[in-house]
Amino acid sequence: MTKKNAKRKPAKKKPAKKTKKKTGRPPRKWTAKQLKEIEKFARDNCAQHEIAEYLECCQASVSDRLKDPPRVDDPEFVFAYKKGHAGFILDLRTKQAEIMRDGSALKNQLGMCIWLGKQELGQRETPEPKPDERRYSYAVPVPGGVLFIPDGANVNDTLTEHFSAAQSEKA
User: Fold this and answer.
1) If both were cysteines, with which of 29, 46, 78, 90 could 50 make a disulfide (CB 3.0 to 4.6 Å apart)?
2) Three-state SS string across the chain, please?
């Protein structure tokens, strides 16, 4: 035996890797029937807690899947919900167009379509400005206050007029 071989220690065996035990409840699997129902409820604009009650799960099971980014990766659930909600938006716009064309809607139908349009579609009522009200597009800080420049006015001309008038007042 040479000195080199005598100093060498035998190779240690690596301990076997321990497999991690999965903790917690396994992810929920949805049946095709449940996914159709989720789509139907989203099309009817049901709240998340109502969907959860019907599916006999907690609201967190529904809301965690719909968050952005989702806490639980469940693309089938998200697809069914988004498809249903898109159907709701489409139905709402269609109903608004029908009411507009027919003009024979009941007052409560019209009010509901307006309210839902504001809530779900981001529609807004912007009143027409009164003729005597001036609308301003710029607010420019100047010595002694703020100069409001009306819509359609030339900014440079307005500033020149303001400063020439201020200098003539000083003189």
Assistant:
1) 46
2) CCHHHHHCCCCCCCCCCCCCCCCCCCCCCCCHHHHHHHHHHHHCCCCHHHHHHHHCCCHHHHHHHHCCCCCCCCHHHHHHHHHHHHHHHHHHHHHHHHHHHHCCCCHHHHHHHHHHHHHHCCCCCCCCCCCCCCCEEEEEEECCEEEEEECCCCHHHHHHHHHHHHHHHHC
Rounded CA separation 67/27 (Å): 16
106-142 pLDDT, tens digit per residue, is 767 778 888 888 888 888 887 666 655 566 667 777 7
Section 5-32 average pLDDT: 75
Rounded to two decimals, the pTM is 0.57
Domain spans in the chain, listed from the N-terminal domain onward: 32-120, 136-170
- Is the CB of residue 146 less than 8 Å from the CB of residue 139? yes
